Amino acid sequence: MDKYLLIILIFMVVTIPVAFIEPSSGHVRDPPLIPLFYAAIAGIIIILVYSSYKEKQERQKANAKRRSRK
C-alpha cells in the first residue's frame, strides 16, 4: 500500500471513534455523528479496493515482463 494511502487510512480509522465520542470532553455524544461514521467506513473501503486494484495491476505487469524474458 502506498504511504499516502496508509496515512489517509489511519485518519479514517481514527475518525470512527470521533463520531461517537466528543474529543474535547471525552463524553459519549448524545446524538452520534452517523454521517461521519459512514463516511469513514466508505473511505476505508474505497482505499482498500483502490490499493488492491493497483497491486493487481502491478503484479500483472511484472508477470507479463517475466514471461516476455523467456
Outline the secondary-structure elements.
Blueprint: H1 3-20, H2 34-69
Helix pairs in contact: 1-2
Keywords for this structure?
mainly alpha, single chain, 70 residues, 0% strand, 77% helix, 2 helices, rod-shaped
Question: Biggest β-sheet, characterized?
Answer: none
* Global morphology: rod-shaped
Number of helices: 2
Which structural class is indicated by helix and strand composition? mainly alpha
Radius of gyration from CA coordinates: 19 Å
Stretches where pLDDT falls below 50 for ≥5 residues? none
Give a short synopsis of this structure.
The protein has 70 residues and is an all-alpha fold. The protein is 77% helix and 0% strand.
Report on the architecture of this protein:
With about 70 residues, the protein is an all-alpha fold. The protein has two helices and no strands. The chain has helices at about 5-20, 35-70. Helix 1 packs antiparallel against helix 2. The longest helix has about 35 residues, at about 35-70. It is rod-shaped.
